[in-house]
Amino acid sequence: MTRFARVAGTGSYLPPKKVANQDLVAQLTARGLESSDEWIVERTGIRFRHFADDGMHASDLAFEASRRCLSAAGKKAQDVDLIIVATSTPDMVFPSTASILQHKLTEAALADGDSVGAAGGAAFDVQAVCSGFVYAMSVANAMIQTGAAQCALVVGAEVFSRILDFNDRTTCVLFGDGAGAVLLEATAHDGDGPGVLATDIHADGKHRAILCTPGTVAGGAVVGSPLLTMDGQAVFKLAVGLLENTARAVLEKAGKTEADVDWLVPHQANIRIMTSTAKKLKLPIERVIVTVDQHGNTSAASIPLAFDHGVRTGQIKPGQIVLMEGVGGGFTWGSALLRL
Ligand SMILES: CC(C)(COP(=O)(O)OP(=O)(O)OC[C@H]1O[C@@H](n2cnc3c(N)ncnc32)[C@H](O)[C@@H]1OP(=O)(O)O)[C@@H](O)C(=O)NCCC(=O)NCCS
């Protein structure tokens, strides 16, 4: 018998403010910048994104997604002994968004009449930008496999609207806010049951400048630009090759081939990157979960948002094999292969 981390539940949350391409195009036009719904849809597949209202933080989105996830799993906050939040738009410099989330979950549990919440378990953030969720899955899986954790809440939560330059038409149309969560629970079987089968994560800092938010806080002020900048074409070219490499690597680690994959749940950045990766893996687009049209690139939140959608719509069924993969600033990339 081997110890595995199985998916016990999923959840996601998009803030109520839904912004259509036409709304953004109108804002850009008012600033003297040309764009169109057609251009955005054709080049990216994005039709809508959600923006958090002022005062709504990554932990608030994470909280809503986590509550839905715990409810789907039939678990309480007290069952969770590890919280990992993948985010590049944390509530504050410190403490971690995971610690803040843990406290919000505990307060909600106490308000529901439970005698304890999630306090006392481990909680920390991982920062690998759009690959953050597969990084977090990889860490949580390793901790569960070694017995360091029993029940891990793995969350991707972002408020990218806070770091967008709305005078840059090449980036502001691409990103949105949201959160997704997966509850991983320890189980044991001979290898044919549910659980994470393999993970694969990488980084190469030499590409750090093609996608970054270079500003920092020093001397009581923001030093450098706090807004996202990107060389879109360079990112595109690099992403397609890296996603194919990590997909093949994770399959090999698990002793599987692309023919074993029932569902590809890619980072939802751009439909053209997703279709070209699927093509390289000889997976028809019907086996790819696509939600990018509804929420744009939500960075670390996009994979769990898409995964939750696939599970709740009944597309992804128990026993099926799911390949998650992501790529992002750093440059970082990685994947996770699991059986639901
Ligand atoms: C950003 C991206 C959509 C641009 O698409 P593209 O087909 O590469 O387009 P180009 O950069 O060649 O630009 C083509 C033209 O459209 C223009 N353009 C850019 N944004 C525009 C917008 N929102 N509306 C209208 N025109 C726009 C460009 O300025 C350029 O004009 P020019 O030819 O006069 O210079 C694409 O490169 C991409 O998706 N890259 C990856 C981004 C990504 O996924 N990042 C996150 C990874 S985690």
Descriptive overview:
With 340 residues, the chain is of the alpha+beta class. Helices cover 34% and strands 26% of the residues. It has two domains: 2-189, Peroxisomal Thiolase, Chain A, domain 1; 195-339, Thiolase/Chalcone synthase (Peroxisomal Thiolase, Chain A, domain 1, 3-Layer(aba) Sandwich). α4 (97-111) links the parallel β4 (82-86) and β5 (122-126). The longest helix is centred in the last third of the chain and has 22 residues, at 232-253. A five-stranded mixed β-sheet has the order 1-7-6-4-5, sandwiched between helices. A four-stranded mixed β-sheet has the order 8-15-14-13, sandwiched between helices. Strands 2-3 form a two-stranded antiparallel ribbon. It has ten helices and 15 strands. Coenzyme A (COA) binds next to α2, α6, α7 and β14.
Indicate the topology:
Elements: E1 2-13, E2 18-20, H1 21-30, H2 37-44, E3 48-50, H3 58-73, E4 82-86, H4 97-111, E5 122-126, H5 132-146, E6 151-159, H6 169-172, E7 177-189, E8 195-203, E9 211-212, E10 216-218, E11 221-223, E12 229-230, H7 232-253, E13 263-266, H8 271-280, H9 292-295, H10 302-312, E14 321-328, E15 332-339
Parallel strand pairs: 4-5, 4-6, 13-14
Antiparallel strand pairs: 1-7, 2-3, 6-7, 8-15, 9-12, 10-11, 14-15
Helix pairs in contact: 3-4, 7-8
The structure holds coenzyme A.
Residues 34-35, 39-40, 43-44, 130, 169-170, 173, 230, 232-233, 235-236, 239, 269-270, 273, 297, 327-328 line the site of coenzyme A.
